[in-house]
Records
---
Amino acid sequence: MIGLGYIILFVAYFFVARTVVRFTTKWASNNNKSVRLWRIITIIGMLSIVFWDLIPIYGTHTYQCASNGGFSVYKTLDEWKKDNPGVAETLVPVDGAKSTQGGETIRYQLNQRFAWDTTRSQVWYTLYKKDEQIVDIQTGEVLAENIDFYTNLINPMVIPTTQLRDFKMWMKINSCNRGIKNKWLVGSDSFISLKSKFKRISGEIQ
C-alpha cells in the first residue's frame, strides 16, 4: 500500500515539475533568455525540493562512519579478571530494567558489576550517532564501545507525522556499512557478542 502511495505522489510531482519546466522554457524563449540554461536551472530546482538533502546526508553518514564509527575494546575480559581476582565467579546475569543516566543515556544492567549504556545524539538534520558502551558500574570505567550512525526517520504509515523528511524513505539508513570487518570486529567478537560475554562472565546461563 505504501509503495502505491509513493508511486502516485511521484507521478503527480512529475506532472507538476514538467508543467513548471514548460512554463519556464516558454518564458525564457519569449524573453530572449537561454532556453537550455533556464530549463536546466528549473529541473535542478524541482529536483532539489525533494532531494536536496540526499547527497549531504549520505556524504556525512559515510564520513562519520569512516572517521568515527567502529567497535573498540579498551579492556578485555581476561584483563578485567586479572584486575579483579575472584569477582567474575560471583556475578549473576540479569535483565536489568532500563534507567536514565542523565541526558540521552539509557542504561541496562547486565549483572551486578557491568552495564550497557546507550547514548543517542544528533549529528546533523536527520543523522544521529549511537554510542554503546560496556561500563564497570563500580568504577565507571568504559571497557568496550561501539559507535554507529543512522538516520532518525519514522515510518509514516505506522506513526502519524507531519514532517516531510519522514516520507523520504530513500533516506533511511539503519547503520554504518559493516563491510570493513576490522572496524566492527575485535578478534572474533562484535559488540553484541562481547556484551553477552560480559553479562555471563561467570559462565552461568540465565
---
Amino acid sequence: MQLQQFFDDNPRIAAAFSGGVDSSYLLYAAKTAGCDVRAYFVKSQFQPGFELDDAVGIAARLGVTLTVEEFSVLNDPAVAANPPDRCYHCKTLMLRRLRELARADGYDVLCDGTNADDDETDRPGMRALREQNVISPLRDCGLDKATIRLLSRQVGLPTHDKPSYSCLATRIPTGTAITTDVLGKIERAEGALSKMGFSDYRVRYQPTGGARIELPDDQIENAASRRAEILTALQPEFQTVTLNLVGR
C-alpha cells in the first residue's frame, strides 16, 4: 500500500505525535495528502522539555492542530516499579488517554509513527499498539527509517537528521524504581551535554547514585579532554561520573 492510498481510505485521523523523525513525516504526509489530521502529544515525566518544544514547532510549521496533554505515568505502580515490560504499561496508559482525547474531538482512527524497521518481537510497546488498535501507516507501507529520513530531507523537514531519542526512563536500569527526582537529574545532565555541543548522547543512571555518559565514537576524545567541565556540570547531582569508552 502507498501512503496516499492509506489517507484516501482514512481521510480523518488522529496522530500520536512525538516531534521525532517518523511522526513528523507522518504528519507531513497526511497534510500533503489532504487528510484532516490532528496531532496529540502526551507530556509525561519521561519526555524532556525540548521534545515538547520540537513537537510544537513542527506542528506549527505544518499547520497541524496540536493537543498537548499533561499526564503522570508514574501514578501507575506498574510503570514506576520499572519492570521489564514497563514500556508496555506506559504506552498502554498513554494510548488509552490519546484515544479518549481523539474521540472527544471526533477522530476515530488513531495512528502513530512506527516504521518498518521497528521489530515487533523486540518492543514491548508494540503489544500496546496492537491491543489499542493503533494503526502504523509508515510501517504498513514498508517505509524504514533510512527512507523516512531521505524523504524528510527532500521535502525540507528539519527532523530529517534528528537523532533518535528514547524516553528518559530508558536511562534507568530495569528493576530500579523510577522517580521524578532521578528523571530530573538525567534531563539536566543531558541538557548540560547538549549545551557543550555534544549530540546523540545518553546519561545512564547507576543505582549507586552515579552517571555513565555514552557518546558516539567521534565525540569521546572531545569529552575526555573536557573532563573538568563535564564534572563541574554533572557532579553536583551524581556521586560518580564515568565515560563509556565504547561508542554508541
---
Amino acid sequence: MGGFVPEIFSGFHLSPDQWLLAVLSGMMIGMAKTGITGFGMLMVPIMAGIFGGRPSTGIVLPMLCVADVFAVSYYHRHAAWKHVLRLMPPTVAGILIGLGVGAAVPDILFKAIIGVGVAVSVALMAWRDLRGDSISVPDVWWFSVLAGLAGGFFTMIGNAAGPVMALYFLAMRLPKNTFIGTTAWFFMIVNLLKVPLHLFVWGTITTATLAFDTVMIPAICAGALLGVRVVRIVPEKPYRVFIMATIVIAAVKMFF
C-alpha cells in the first residue's frame, strides 16, 4: 500500500483543497445514508466541480454503493416491497433515457443538467419541509410512472434522485422506519443496476476510479458513523436550511 496512495494522487492531478473536498464529499455520502439527508445532494455539485459532470457520476456511484450497505444494514427489515417493485419499470426507463442524453451532450451541458436536477431537488426538499404531513398526491398509476421516470433520469444524470424519490415514498404515508428502509433498498438496487452502464457504456468506472473510491471508503464509514450521532443532537430545521442554502450556491456555480 505504500506506493498505492501516491499513484492515486498523481493519477487524478488534484490539489490539496480538491482532495479535502473529495474526502468531505465521501463523509457527506455516509452521513446522508444514516440520517443527514441533505448532505447527499450537497456532494453532487462539489464532485462535479472537481472531476467534471459525467466523470463524477462514475466516481461517485461506487461510493454510494458502499454507503447503501450501511443504510440497508440498519433498516433491512423495514421495506414496503410493493412500492419498490411498482417503481422499478419506470425507473429503469428513466435511467435509459438519462443514459442516452448523457452520452449525447458535451460535459458543459451535462453539468448544467446536473445543476438543474440539483435545483429541482432542493425545491422539492423545501416544499416537503413546508407542507409536511399535508402533502397529498393521487394514488394512481401515472403518478408512480412520472416519479420513476424522473427519479431514474436524475439518478443517472448526477446521482441526484434522492429528494424526488423521498417525496414519493413520503406521499405513500409509510411509517418512519418503513420509509427509510424502503428508500434504502430502492437505491441499493438502482445503484447496482447503474454500475454496468457506467462500466460498459459511458466508461466512467475504471480501475483508476475504483482505486480512488477505495481510498474514500474510510471517509464514507466515518460519515456514516458520524451521521448516526449528529442526527440525534443537531436540531433538524437549522441544519436543513443551512444545507439547502449551501446546495443552491454550489448548484449555481455549476452554470459558470
